[in-house]
Write a structure and sequence with these properties.
The structure is a single chain. The protein is an alpha+beta fold and about 400 residues long. Helices cover about 40% and strands about 30% of the residues. The chain is built from twelve helices and 20 strands. Strands 6-5-14-15-16-13-17-20 form an eight-stranded mixed β-sheet. A six-stranded mixed β-sheet has the order 8-2-1-12-19-18, with helices on both faces. The longest helix is centred in the last third of the chain and has 28 residues. The two termini are about 35 Å apart. Bound molecules: flavin-adenine dinucleotide (FAD) and 3,4-dihydroxybenzoic acid (DHB). 3,4-dihydroxybenzoic acid binds next to strand 15.
């Protein structure tokens, strides 16, 4: 097999890259080691920043998003005695949408299978070769067990945090660097058949720990509790989870709405950046190169920003035979990555309790500041809704 861009991983980054390239007349093949059912069911992010919605809409992926997505004008920030609303359009003229990553992925897969570039699920033994030449290749075994060789002009490593691409960059790129921070807390996340008891998302600081009230639709809530990273999900009955949530979101005259829990899991929290995001003809995008803790809702949005930049660089490289954008890709992408890394770390540090009373007072002081100063609120709003590309 031969293609211009071989794409490893059918997460949001790989699927969107394939779509953006196809719209520019560049062909690609996507290989994914999981099944279509698995990829479409993986519950992850839920908030799309304005840039992401604009990109998906321009790529012809906005039809269901605009019909079923929930437009949000702000968030509520809560700490004991206060629930304060930040109005994003007022603060920065931008807004966000609630539309699950699962739905974005389903839309992209449906479009790709309806006459788009080839997409191979259930592949195994993916190996990347000769990325320091102009003709790299991907070897893999297809779902029928047949070994395949995919000859490419470029390989895109959009294979997430656990995929093989980052290690290939690390082996050969000059001056490769890694930065990592593991946080001393995790999120217990649930999906529940319960109408959200709030119009906007609630980010709540509480002495017991952080809690986040989000949603997926007018009848489905998505809720998170800060827990210790060593906690086991089996020790959290539904009743214990609802009690924890009710305590942390408690606010005068307001009540949480409960319902059947349909999914629950514990997510570790880390910041991670790997640079450069390129070795020769292999380019990394999305979680393959960086991870942010989820508090700022940036992971998926950052993957989309990488892919927009990468698609432009690859069009220029493969159509115009100009290397300038490809050469600038890693540095340009990393500037946005570090902004999102800082914002996600800042939100995480402001909202998660550590058990240290000094930390708690600093956090409450910062929260009071964001809720009383327009300048401080605008800084949060601009980052949360997404800085312009
Ligand atoms: P991924 O979505 O990870 O896609 C990578 C793809 O590559 C996957 O389909 C994987 O199966 C495939 N792959 C891996 N190895 C191979 C291989 N060897 N061969 C072929 N394919 C391979 N972000 C938020 O903003 N808010 C959230 O609430 C949030 N919750 C999250 C919860 C979890 C459990 C996780 C893991 C992430 C969460 N994120 C969240 C982050 C967000 O989901 C990611 O930033 C986003 O998925 C990045 O997209 P991606 O395409 O780069 O990577
Ligand atoms: C969701 C996740 C986040 O990390 C966040 O900051 C907001 C919403 C969600 O899954 O809905």
């Amino acid at each position: 097999m031969r293609t211009q861009v071989g794409i490893i991983g059918a997460g949001p980054a790989g699927l969107l890259l394939s779509r953006l390239l196809a719209l520019q007349g560049i062909d690609s093949v996507v290989v994914e080691n999981r099944s279509r059912e698995y990829v479409e069911a993986r519950i992850r992010a839920g908030i799309l920043e304005q840039n992401t919605v604009d990109v998906l809409t321009e790529a012809g992926m906005g039809e269901r998003l605009h019909r079923e997505g929930l437009e949000h004008r702000g968030i509520h920030l809560q700490y004991p005695g206060t629930r304060h609303t930040l109005d994003f359009p007022e603060l920065c003229g931008r807004r966000v949408w609630v539309y699950g990553q699962t739905e974005v992925v389903k839309d992209l897969i449906a479009a790709q299978l309806a006459g788009g570039p080839p997409l191979h699920f259930d592949v195994t033994d993916v190996a990347i070769e000769d990325v320091d030449t102009d003709s790299p290749r991907i070897r893999f075994t297809d779902a029928d067990g047949t070994p395949q060789v995919l000859e490419c002009d470029v390989v895109a490593g959009t294979d997430g945090f656990h995929g093989p691409s980052r290690a290939v960059v690390a082996e050969g790129a000059a001056g490769q660097r890694l930065w990592e921070r593991t946080y001393p807390y995790a999120w217990l996340g649930i999906l529940a058949d319960a109408a959200p008891a709030t119009d906007e998302l609630i980010y709540a600081w509480h002495p017991d720990g952080f809690a986040l009230y989000s949603m997926r639709s007018p009848s489905v809530s998505r809720l998170y509790l800060q827990v210790d990273p060593g906690e086991r999900i089996e020790d959290w009955s539904d009743d214990r989870i609802w009690e924890g949530l009710a305590t942390r979101f408690a606010h005068e005259g307001w009540e949480i709405s409960t319902g059947t829990v349909t999914e629950k899991s514990i997510l570790p929290m880390r910041s991670f950046v790997s640079a450069p995001m390129r070795r020769g003809r292999l380019f990394l995008a999305g979680d393959a190169a960086h991870i942010v803790p989820p508090t700022g809702a940036k992971g998926l949005n950052l993957a989309v920003a990488d892919v927009v930049l990468l698609s432009r660089a690859l069009v220029r490289l493969l159509q115009d035979k100009e290397t300038d954008l490809a050469d600038a890709y890693s540095d340009t992408a990393l500037r946005r990555v570090w902004r999102a890394t800082h914002f996600s770390w800042w939100m995480t540090s402001m909202l998660h309790t550590t058990g240290d009373p000094f930390d708690a007072e600093l956090q409450l002081s910062q929260l009071r500041r964001v809720c009383s100063s327009e300048a401080a609120a605008r800084e949060l709003a601009e980052n949360y809704t997404g800085l312009p590309y």
